[in-house]
Design a protein that fits this description.
Layout lengths: L9 E8 L9 E9 L5 E7 L8 H7 L3 H4 L5 H12 L5 E4 L2 H14 L9 E3 H7 L1
Parallel strand pairs: 1-4, 4-5
Antiparallel strand pairs: 1-2, 2-3
C-alpha cells in the first residue's frame, strides 16, 4: 500500500463530547483506527468519564449516558492512552472537522500539564469540501 500523504502511519480519530466548547465541555468518548503501510489496522476505543453530567441532547445524539461513563477513565488518562496509541509526533492524524477534536485533545493535555499535539493533521471535512 505504501505511504499515505507522505507518512508511513495514519491515525483517523473521532471524539464525542458533552458540547461544543472545549473550555467548558468535556470528552466522553475517543475512537481511532491506525492504518499501517501494509494495509493492516489497529483500533483504539474508550469511553471517558467527563466528571460532569452528560446533557440530554448529547445522550440522545451519541447514545452515551452518565451510567456508561461512571467506570471510564477521566480525560487525562484517556488522552494519555490515546497518545500512546498514536505512537509519536511523526504519525499523521485525520479527523472530520479536525480543529474541533484537536481542540478538545489539547485542552485535556494542557490540563494534565503536557504539551499540545504536534502531529500533522488532515481535516477530512476540508477534503470533502474540495472533492
Amino acid at each position: 500500500m505504501g505511504r499515505i500523504f507522505g507518512y508511513d502511519i495514519i491515525v483517523a480519530f473521532d471524539l464525542e463530547t458533552t458540547g461544543l466548547d472545549p473550555s467548558v465541555d468535556k470528552i466522553i468518548e475517543i475512537g481511532a483506527v491506525k492504518l499501517y503501510p501494509d494495509g493492516t489496522t489497529e483500533e483504539f476505543s474508550t469511553l471517558v468519564n467527563p466528571e460532569i453530567p452528560i446533557p440530554f441532547r448529547v445522550r440522545q445524539l451519541t447514545g452515551i449516558d452518565n451510567n456508561m461513563v461512571l467506570g471510564a477513565p477521566p480525560a487525562k488518562k484517556a488522552v494519555a492512552d490515546f497518545l500512546d496509541f498514536i505512537g509519536g509526533d511523526d504519525v499523521l492524524l485525520a479527523a472530520h472537522n479536525a480543529s474541533f477534536d484537536v481542540g478538545f485533545i489539547n485542552v485535556s493535555l494542557l490540563d494534565a500539564g503536557k504539551e499540545p499535539l504536534r502531529n500533522p493533521v488532515v481535516d477530512t471535512l476540508s477534503l470533502a469540501r474540495i472533492l
